[in-house]
Amino acid sequence: MAVMTDIQQFKRRLLALEARAVARTDRAMEAAGIGRDTVHDSGDASHATAAASEQFAEAELSAGTLAEIRAALGRIDAGTFGACAVDGAPIEEARLAAVPWAAHCLAHAEQAEAAAADTMPTL
């Protein structure tokens, strides 16, 4: 595991981020369901559908981040927080300060992003 100056500092920050992500996900899901009973015509229905789609996208993003935050909290409990999931090398503290749920060092994160970009379909 990487030597952390204060792992409890990261835990407190992750717990605060978790609470905000839960609240944001709940709000987005609630907002996506609002207004369905008040649709009166096709224009209203179109607007309601577009708004719900945006809210679901926001909720999905929040839920994904929430899962990553909870995984990081699990790594703290397991004693592996701050170690790259690929090779166990320390994750840079600046990276953890910016993305406290990071599971990979910068080099491996960049490799994963490049690989994902290569597999993305284009139009």
In which range does the helix fraction lie? 55-70%
Structural class: mainly alpha
User: Main sheet?
Assistant: none
Proportion of beta-strand residues = under 5%
Count of extended strands: 0
Describe this structure in words.
With 123 residues, the protein is mainly α. The chain is built from four helices and no strands. It is flat, with a radius of gyration of 19 Å.
Looking at this protein, list some descriptive labels.
mainly alpha
Brief digest:
By secondary structure, the chain is mainly alpha-helical. It has helices at 7-33, 42-78, 93-98, 106-119.
Write the layout of secondary structure elements.
Layout: H1 7-33, H2 42-78, H3 93-98, H4 106-119
Helix pairs in contact: 1-2
